[in-house]
Design brief:
By secondary structure, the protein is of the alpha+beta class. The protein is 41% helix and 25% strand. It starts with 7 loop residues before the first strand and ends with a strand. Bound molecules: (R)-mevalonate.
Length: 319
């Protein structure tokens, strides 16, 4: 007999900020990534429909439909059904998210992780980290072509980690929580286009690019140490150095550079783009005692800004 609990499962997973190493992580560099306070929530219910349906904010699509909506979650769902050996299921998958999409904050990875967690639990499939990671990556590959996995890692495991494509993730212990400010430019963009732009840059200037991959790894390893020691002035200096390489890659914009300059005027240790760039968000590391005044100052012009403490929890089941 199926228990009432097994009829509905809700799972939630956080968005992320990349403190160091975005883009270069795709080419094998180390990155430092942290889960943030905003979460995506996915509820999966058994229901009497004719097929599995995905729904969010008034929009609905069947998992088998070829329309372009919910492409990530469709891939995740089909893969899980295939692995469970039950290709036909009548489920309703409802998505809610506090993470603005197309903003460099890992919204798609968080939705794919939460969907994988909720589906696996409802279908009594394995829910270990490696299994959920692989399912969520199916969705990310559909959306972004060649993702490094750094977004899925942060969303799934939470906390702060040093991530590398080959060696995987190592959790960074924090001596105290750290407040970051996230300033969202409100300009949505496509991660895949930016990864391709970077790939063109790599082909055009391979030697310089290789040096910058090594530099990114060095900065990430140093940032991991600065975070665990709570050395915020040094962490800020490392973020500023990382931004120089991102500028060279061509993933910053004049709007983002203006925002970075404005944020660095006072009471801030460092600031940089986070995620793919080309719009999206920047992260600002304020002096701890000044974070509220920095947030107020930045929010005057950039109304979608918010503060997040790190560390935060990763995937969680809510029922
Ligand atoms: C996107 O959040 C981070 C990128 O490095 C892409 C990836 O690592 O998959 C731009």
């Amino acid at each position: 007999m199926t228990s009432k609990r097994a009829q509905t499962v809700t799972a939630s997973a956080p968005g992320k900020i990349i403190v160091s190493g975005e883009h270069f992580v795709v080419q094998g560099a180390f990155a430092v990534v942290a889960a943030i306070c905003n979460r995506a929530r996915v509820t999966v219910k058994k229901y009497d429909g004719r097929s599995t349906v995905i729904a969010s904010e008034g929009q609905e699509s069947s998992v088998n439909s070829n329309d372009r909506s919910f492409r990530g979650v469709k891939s995740v769902t089909k893969k899980i059904f295939e692995k469970c050996g039950r290709p036909q299921q009548n489920l309703r998958i409802e998505i809610e998210s506090e993470i603005p999409s197309g903003s460099g904050l890992g919204s798609s990875a968080a939705v794919c992780v939460a969907a994988s967690g909720a589906l696996c639990r409802l279908l009594n499939f394995k829910t270990d980290t490696a299994t959920i990671f692989d399912f969520a990556m199916e969705g990310e590959k559909t959306l972004h072509g060649n993702p490094s996995g750094v977004d899925v890692q942060a969303s799934l495991c939470g906390g702060v980690s040093l991530f590398n494509r080959k060696s995987g993730a190592k959790s960074i212990p924090l001596s105290r929580a750290i407040q970051f400010i996230v300033a969202n430019s409100g300009h949505e963009r496509n991660t895949n286009d930016l990864i391709e732009r970077v790939e063109r840059r790599r082909r055009r200037f391979p030697a310089t690019f290789d040096h910058l991959v090594q530099t990114a790894s060095f900065l990430s390893l140093q940032a991991a140490e600065a975070i665990s020691e709570g050395d915020l002035p040094y962490l800020g200096a490392l973020m500023n150095a990382a931004q120089t390489s991102l500028n060279w890659l061509g993933v910053s914009t004049s709007g983002l550079n203006m925002l970075l300059e404005q944020s660095l005027i006072r009471d801030v240790f460092g600031a940089k783009i986070t995620g793919a760039g080309g719009g999206g968000s920047i992260i600002i590391l304020p002096k701890p005692e000044k974070y509220e005044s920095v947030l107020t100052r930045i929010s005057k012009d950039w109304t979608k800004s918010f503060a997040t403490a790190i560390p935060q929890k990763g995937l969680q089941w809510e029922n």
